[in-house]
Amino acid sequence: MRYILLNPGPVSLSERVRKAAVSQDLCHREPEFFKLQDRVRSALLEVYGCDPAGWAAVLLGGSGTTALESMLASLLPRDARLLVIENGVYGERISRIADIHGIEHQTLEHPWTDAIDYAKLGPLLAGGSFSHLAAVHHETTTGRLNDIDRLAELCEQHGVELLLDAVSSFGAEAIPFESPALLACAVTANKCLHGIPGMCFVVCRRSALKKAADPPRSLYLHLPLWAEKQDSRTTPFTPPVNAMLALNAALQELALSGGWQGRHAHYSHLAGQVKRVLTRAGVEPLLSPGESSCVLNAYRLPKGKTYELIHDGLKQRGFVIYAGQGSLAAEMFRISTMGDISNYDMERLLAALQAVFSG
Length: 359
Description:
Elements: E1 4-5, H1 15-21, H2 31-46, E2 55-61, H3 64-75, E3 82-86, H4 89-100, E4 105-109, H5 118-126, E5 132-136, E6 138-139, E7 144-145, H6 148-158, E8 161-165, E9 182-188, E10 199-205, H7 206-210, H8 223-231, H9 241-256, H10 259-280, E11 296-300, H11 307-315, E12 319-320, E13 322-323, E14 332-336, H12 343-358
Parallel strand pairs: 1-12, 3-4, 3-5, 5-8, 8-9
Antiparallel strand pairs: 2-10, 6-7, 9-10, 11-14, 13-14
Helix pairs in contact: 1-9, 2-9, 10-12, 11-12
């Protein structure tokens, strides 16, 4: 049985992407690989129309956390003063990374189900104590889409540079690359871009690479090293070649599907179908309308239904959903609509949801 993955990454792959991953054997020191690397870096910038003269897509091997840690460890200078917004697991992960690398920082903490408190954030930024702000765009802990436009505007007003965890939003949600405050985004291949796990990247301003931490906080994670080598059509270390082959095919599919706007519309349509079926079954969304990303929605566990019961019932029918995290594990479950999901898959999913929640 082919399982349709409804978790927030990795995603169900198209046949084109799956075959591309094993289509050929490439040595990472040969011209054929560097042509592939150039194509992928260029296509990533094209997703949001970023000018390659001012922006670089720096490719790395690893998960989204690799990109996030690389962005923070590299692009925050030694004298940086960082404010971290936490309203979920992944905001808290930013703070953990800052702790490990000895980066001076302060946190603005929120309950996991809350939106960003701008009444508290504004005065903090206005105080002039911070050079950088780090935040999660799509906090998949709850499916919340944080208001990044508003964050960018506040950062512009107060001369603060914004570092964004866009791991679960790049390729499907609007990102304000036009804002002078936005310094960089950390991203992975295996979420909204529909690639395979093992490849991540940071889209960052070239000016930020010139002001990076010196001396470096890490060897492997130091973005200026990767950017310099990739700009020179080489690579400092062995990259995930097969994941890059898959990402190249996935980016072609993204362009054919209408870019990030087309993917946003597609995800929203699928999520709407799921929501209608669950609402009729008496299942309540965790967040209010308009607060969730198009990528993933969280729902409250109805009375008499455990997560295990729901998960197992759907998995028996070919679908894999996701549990809540931490203190929310006993309250909610999550369903994503990323990946290669056909109309036939959706028909089966909607029937499976009706069966599981009516039983």
